[in-house]
What does this fold into?
Amino acid sequence: MTVKTTWTLFFDGACKPTNPGKYACFGWVLKDPTGKMRATGKGLLVPTENITNNVAEYGALEEGLKYVIKSGLVIPRLLCLGDSKLVVMTVAGKWRAKKAHLLLMRERVRVLLKGLISWEMKWISREENEEADVLSQGVRLRCGAHSTVVVY
It folds into this structure.
Protein backbone atom coordinates (compact mmCIF):
# COMPACT_ATOMS: atom_id res chain seq x y z
CA MET A 1 0.00 0.00 0.00
CA THR A 2 1.34 3.44 -0.98
CA VAL A 3 0.81 6.28 1.46
CA LYS A 4 -0.08 9.57 -0.20
CA THR A 5 2.00 12.44 1.12
CA THR A 6 1.46 15.22 -1.42
CA TRP A 7 -0.67 18.18 -0.43
CA THR A 8 -1.96 20.50 -3.14
CA LEU A 9 -2.12 24.30 -3.18
CA PHE A 10 -4.30 25.74 -5.95
CA PHE A 11 -3.82 29.49 -6.49
CA ASP A 12 -5.35 32.14 -8.71
CA GLY A 13 -5.32 35.89 -9.05
CA ALA A 14 -7.36 38.45 -10.92
CA CYS A 15 -6.84 42.11 -11.67
CA LYS A 16 -9.92 44.30 -11.10
CA PRO A 17 -11.72 45.97 -12.78
CA THR A 18 -9.53 45.37 -15.87
CA ASN A 19 -5.94 44.34 -16.63
CA PRO A 20 -3.98 46.39 -15.70
CA GLY A 21 -6.27 47.55 -12.97
CA LYS A 22 -6.76 49.09 -9.59
CA TYR A 23 -6.81 45.98 -7.37
CA ALA A 24 -5.20 42.55 -7.32
CA CYS A 25 -7.64 39.94 -6.01
CA PHE A 26 -6.46 36.49 -4.98
CA GLY A 27 -7.78 33.09 -3.99
CA TRP A 28 -6.13 29.85 -2.89
CA VAL A 29 -7.25 26.37 -1.85
CA LEU A 30 -5.21 23.87 0.19
CA LYS A 31 -6.10 20.16 -0.11
CA ASP A 32 -4.65 17.28 1.86
CA PRO A 33 -3.35 14.09 0.22
CA THR A 34 -6.85 12.57 0.15
CA GLY A 35 -8.19 15.57 -1.79
CA LYS A 36 -10.08 16.98 1.19
CA MET A 37 -10.17 20.77 1.31
CA ARG A 38 -8.28 21.85 4.44
CA ALA A 39 -8.16 25.64 4.06
CA THR A 40 -9.02 28.45 1.66
CA GLY A 41 -8.04 32.07 1.45
CA LYS A 42 -9.06 35.12 -0.53
CA GLY A 43 -8.52 38.84 -0.44
CA LEU A 44 -7.07 41.93 -2.04
CA LEU A 45 -3.44 42.91 -2.25
CA VAL A 46 -2.54 46.46 -1.31
CA PRO A 47 -2.89 48.63 -4.43
CA THR A 48 0.29 49.75 -6.19
CA GLU A 49 0.98 51.34 -9.56
CA ASN A 50 1.89 47.98 -11.16
CA ILE A 51 -1.32 46.00 -10.61
CA THR A 52 -1.66 43.35 -13.32
CA ASN A 53 -2.95 39.80 -13.52
CA ASN A 54 0.65 38.59 -13.05
CA VAL A 55 0.93 40.55 -9.79
CA ALA A 56 -2.38 39.06 -8.64
CA GLU A 57 -1.23 35.51 -9.51
CA TYR A 58 2.09 35.91 -7.66
CA GLY A 59 0.17 37.38 -4.72
CA ALA A 60 -2.19 34.40 -4.63
CA LEU A 61 0.72 31.96 -4.51
CA GLU A 62 2.55 34.01 -1.89
CA GLU A 63 -0.50 34.28 0.39
CA GLY A 64 -1.23 30.55 0.09
CA LEU A 65 2.38 29.68 0.92
CA LYS A 66 2.36 32.04 3.92
CA TYR A 67 -0.66 30.16 5.26
CA VAL A 68 0.98 26.76 4.72
CA ILE A 69 4.10 27.81 6.60
CA LYS A 70 2.30 29.59 9.47
CA SER A 71 -0.25 26.77 9.90
CA GLY A 72 2.29 24.39 11.40
CA LEU A 73 0.93 21.53 9.30
CA VAL A 74 3.46 18.82 8.51
CA ILE A 75 3.44 18.73 4.72
CA PRO A 76 6.07 16.35 3.29
CA ARG A 77 5.47 17.51 -0.27
CA LEU A 78 3.48 20.46 -1.67
CA LEU A 79 2.29 20.57 -5.26
CA CYS A 80 1.51 24.18 -6.26
CA LEU A 81 -0.98 24.40 -9.13
CA GLY A 82 -1.85 27.61 -10.96
CA ASP A 83 -3.21 28.72 -14.32
CA SER A 84 -0.58 31.44 -14.84
CA LYS A 85 2.13 29.97 -17.03
CA LEU A 86 4.35 32.98 -16.33
CA VAL A 87 4.24 32.50 -12.55
CA VAL A 88 4.59 28.71 -12.68
CA MET A 89 7.50 28.76 -15.14
CA THR A 90 9.44 31.62 -13.51
CA VAL A 91 9.11 30.21 -9.99
CA ALA A 92 10.16 26.76 -11.29
CA GLY A 93 13.20 28.39 -12.94
CA LYS A 94 12.22 27.44 -16.49
CA TRP A 95 11.61 31.03 -17.62
CA ARG A 96 13.28 34.29 -16.63
CA ALA A 97 11.29 37.11 -15.05
CA LYS A 98 12.14 40.39 -16.79
CA LYS A 99 10.27 43.13 -14.93
CA ALA A 100 11.76 44.33 -11.65
CA HIS A 101 8.53 44.16 -9.63
CA LEU A 102 7.87 40.58 -10.82
CA LEU A 103 11.45 39.58 -9.99
CA LEU A 104 10.87 40.79 -6.44
CA MET A 105 7.62 38.84 -6.17
CA ARG A 106 9.28 35.69 -7.54
CA GLU A 107 12.08 36.02 -4.97
CA ARG A 108 9.58 36.41 -2.09
CA VAL A 109 7.85 33.22 -3.25
CA ARG A 110 11.16 31.36 -3.54
CA VAL A 111 12.09 32.38 0.02
CA LEU A 112 8.79 30.90 1.24
CA LEU A 113 9.36 27.71 -0.75
CA LYS A 114 12.70 27.23 1.02
CA GLY A 115 10.68 26.72 4.22
CA LEU A 116 9.05 23.59 2.79
CA ILE A 117 10.37 20.03 2.82
CA SER A 118 9.64 19.39 -0.87
CA TRP A 119 7.65 21.27 -3.51
CA GLU A 120 6.75 21.28 -7.19
CA MET A 121 5.10 23.86 -9.45
CA LYS A 122 2.74 22.83 -12.25
CA TRP A 123 0.59 24.73 -14.71
CA ILE A 124 -3.07 23.72 -15.00
CA SER A 125 -5.93 25.05 -17.11
CA ARG A 126 -8.39 27.61 -15.76
CA GLU A 127 -11.05 24.88 -15.74
CA GLU A 128 -8.89 22.70 -13.49
CA ASN A 129 -8.34 25.69 -11.19
CA GLU A 130 -12.02 26.51 -10.73
CA GLU A 131 -12.12 26.57 -6.91
CA ALA A 132 -9.28 29.09 -6.58
CA ASP A 133 -10.65 31.07 -9.54
CA VAL A 134 -14.08 31.38 -7.92
CA LEU A 135 -12.46 32.67 -4.72
CA SER A 136 -10.38 35.27 -6.57
CA GLN A 137 -13.31 36.42 -8.69
CA GLY A 138 -15.64 36.59 -5.68
CA VAL A 139 -13.59 39.17 -3.81
CA ARG A 140 -15.51 42.42 -3.48
CA LEU A 141 -13.70 45.71 -4.02
CA ARG A 142 -15.21 47.15 -0.84
CA CYS A 143 -13.31 44.69 1.39
CA GLY A 144 -10.10 46.74 1.10
CA ALA A 145 -6.77 45.05 1.64
CA HIS A 146 -8.18 42.45 4.06
CA SER A 147 -7.77 38.73 3.67
CA THR A 148 -10.09 35.94 4.72
CA VAL A 149 -8.81 32.46 5.62
CA VAL A 150 -11.16 29.54 6.28
CA VAL A 151 -9.78 26.38 7.90
CA TYR A 152 -11.70 23.11 7.52
About this structure: Helices lie at 53-71, 85-91, 100-113, 130-137. The longest strand covers residues 6-16. Residues 100 and 106 are 10 Å apart (CA to CA).
